Amino acid sequence: MSIYVGNLAYTVTQEQLQEVFSDYGEVKRVSLPMDRETGRPRGFGFVEMAEDAQEDKAIEELDGAEWMGRVLKVNKARPKETNKRY
What we know:
With 86 residues, the chain is of the alpha+beta class. It is 23% helix and 27% strand. The N and C termini lie far apart (31 Å).
């Protein structure tokens, strides 16, 4: 499972995001997608933790929390939807 973290400041680094989530357990992976055209962060990221219970606790504690001047949106990540053309 993966955690979606939205409304991030554009200056956030993977290391900073990992540090915040490490308070809740072992962080396995952090991803900050970049905009293809500008090369800048897109304002959201994904965090994967070692155990589901750790992820649940992080979501519970961090959703709606203020960090770096922004109110975080934190929830379970949904699978990426594919663009279907008919």
